[in-house]
Design goal:
The protein is of the alpha+beta class. The protein is built from eight helices and 36 strands. Among the domains are: 58 residues, no CATH class; 106 residues, Immunoglobulin-like (Sandwich).
């Protein structure tokens, strides 16, 4: 009876949590074998029949066998191999002619493959880059048999380390070969023309001249050559080219190409660059304290996820608005747009299996996935307007449908920062003393700064002198070498003439034991006698304090005391790792005699 009641209560809790959830579990297949990122997912009505399908640029298990998959519902509709790993997928309208079915663009390697009705339509290749002239000269010498393969390898390695222009793929493959394979490779490729080809790192779409949902769009490409290219949607020619200081990895666009537009690129150097229509170089720059892991534009706010487990909000001019700390690392991000309610929010998938939905810095909802989510996509799928599609780290596929009655309310998820942070402080009025002090700082600012700098330099000088004096007199109980983190403390017990000397030696390292140490005593033999002036130290385990005991006999009959110096040495070395001075007390027994 107890087991039955327990199972009934568990099922009741599950039903209640499902009833309170804003999502319907439509499908979950842990063995779907889909390995991709959010940039390689797209939803579109590819056949013009009102049935939206999911386009997946699948990396394949372990990055092997990349494929283009099109899913209808939970099943794979078509599947075709790709020549290289996909970088991004997007759907766009190329022309205004009927029937107005969108085309599919898939960026892979140096090419963009365009499909119409799921059939290959056009292939755009990035223009070739001029090769390195030194590299070209070396291959010309190899063609004329003027240099051997080993010399060619050494010269190419020197060019790769120093030259600003990177090497071609042919030279990079040659440098990876073993010595026995080089000659055959040179004979096979020495007659070929050196080609240097860049690759596409990211891709998105930009409206051509209208802001309508079914308007013609241009493709915007980010390349490994630190450039942004805007392509014509019909002729696939380059309309404009923009330069960046680093390689773009995430892109966000707004506006129309023929009117006014703004491109936002998150780059590998940890910065975000904002470009306008007439600018060939970035107009604004946002420097992050960590690498970006996602970039989403929500209305006029740029939401950036960083590797420091946090979300940041910026204006389109780069001004920081807010920051929200996450409970785990962010894996991927995407936009959630509920058109029926005019809601735009950002979705962030975390390493702990959560998918968090934020509007600005307010947490709207938390979804608990069965595994860490690596890609997100929200939109119309099939005939459902609000569908959330997720793929997991293990290759699983999760499909959830937002309930039609669901309303996102701020604060329904876990609490974010307290409201007190947004409350303005009641700043007191400026007093006469404050005004006078401000005027004094304005008038004598240079002199005050010089005085402060002088005092600061004097403080640093005194601290350095005290540190040197402590090192020379060995007053510090800690080891001064970073290689041997040791701590020494000495205790003298007794009234005399025989004293008990206890040395407490501790290894302050966190994980590494210390072995092979020796202790030596330096003292006046006319005043003191020790049974052993030199002995070895056992293995020191990190964190433990080892007491080492010995006896000191005072030989003076006149009540004279002196200092005994303790040295901790490494076996086979003469320089001490650690030293300490022990002021011996006066022997009361001898003094009384």
């Amino acid at each position: 009876m107890a087991a039955t009641s327990s199972s009934d209560s568990d099922s009741g809790r599950a039903e209640s949590s499902e009833a309170n959830s804003k999502w319907l579990d439509a499908h979950y297949d842990p063995m779907a074998n889909i390995h991709t990122f959010s940039s390689c997912l797209a939803l579109a009505d590819l056949h013009g029949d009102g049935e939206y399908k999911l386009v997946v640029g699948d990396l394949g298990p372990g990055g092997q066998q990349p494929r283009l998959k099109v899913l209808k519902g939970p099943a794979v509709l078509t599947e075709s191999p790709l020549p290289a790993l996909p970088a991004s997928a997007a759907t766009f309208l190329m022309e205004q002619h009927e029937p107005r079915t969108p085309a599919l663009a898939l960026a892979s390697g140096p090419c963009v493959y365009v499909y119409k009705n799921l059939r290959p339509y056009f292939k755009f290749s990035l223009p070739q880059l001029p090769p390195n002239p030194l590299e070209q000269d070396l291959w010309n010498q190899a063609k004329e048999d003027r240099i051997d393969p080993l010399t060619l390898k050494e010269m190419l390695e020197g060019i790769r380390e120093k030259a600003e222009v990177p090497l071609s793929v042919q030279s990079l493959r040659f440098l990876q070969l073993e010595l026995s394979e080089m000659e055959a490779f040179v004979n096979q490729h020495k007659s070929k023309v050196i080609k240097r080809q860049t690759v596409i790192t990211t891709m998105t779409t930009l409206k051509k001249n209208l802001a309508d949902e079914d308007a013609v769009s241009c493709l915007v490409l980010g390349t490994e050559n630190k450039e942004l290219l805007v392509l014509d949607p019909e002729a696939f020619t380059i309309l404009t080219k923009m330069s960046l200081p680093s390689v773009p990895v995430f892109l966000e666009v707004s506006g129309q190409f023929d009117v006014e537009f703004r491109l936002t690129a998150a780059c590998r150097n940890g910065s975000i660059y904002i470009l306008r229509r007439d600018s060939k170089h970035p107009k604004y720059c946002i420097e992050l304290s960590a690498q970006p892991v996602g970039l989403v534009r929500v209305h006029k706010t740029l939401v950036v996820g960083s590797t420091q487990e946090s979300l940041h909000g910026f204006t389109h001019k780069g001004k920081k608005l807010w920051t929200v700390q996450m409970p785990a690392a962010i894996l991927t991000m995407n936009l959630l747009e509920q058109r029926s309610r005019g809601l735009q929010a950002v979705m962030a998938a975390l390493a702990n299996g959560e998918v968090r939905i934020y509007r600005d810095k307010a947490l709207l909802n938390v979804i608990h996935a069965p595994d860490a989510v690596t890609s997100l996509c929200f939109g119309r799928y099939g005939r459902e307007d609000n569908t959330l599609i997720m793929t997991t780290r293990g290759g699983g596929l999760v499909i959830k449908i937002l309930k039609r009655t669901a309303v996102f309310v701020e604060g329904t998820g876990e609490m974010g920062p307290p409201l007190a942070q947004t409350t303005k402080l009641s700043v007191p009025r400026k007093t006469r003393l404050y005004v006078d002090q401000t005027l004094r700082e304005r008038e004598a600012g240079t002199a005050m700064h010089r005085t402060f700098q002088t005092d600061l330099y004097l403080l640093r000088l005194r601290a350095a002198r005290a540190y040197v004096q402590a090192l020379e007199s060995s007053l510090s109980p800690m080891s001064t070498t970073a290689r041997e983190p040791l701590k020494l403390h000495a205790v003298v017990q007794g009234l005399g003439p025989t004293f008990k000397l206890t040395l407490h030696l501790q290894n302050t390292s966190t994980a590494r034991p210390v072995l092979g140490l020796q202790i030596c005593f330096l003292y006046n033999e006319a005043l003191y006698a020790l049974p052993r002036a030199f002995f070895k130290v056992p293995l020191l385990v990190p964190g433990l304090s080892y007491p080492l005991e010995t006896f000191v006999e005072s030989l003076s009959s006149k009540g004279i005391s002196d200092m005994i110096k303790v040295l901790v040495l490494r076996e086979g070395q003469s320089a001490p790792l650690l030293s300490a001075h022990i002021n011996m007390p006066v022997s009361e027994g001898l003094a009384a005699a």
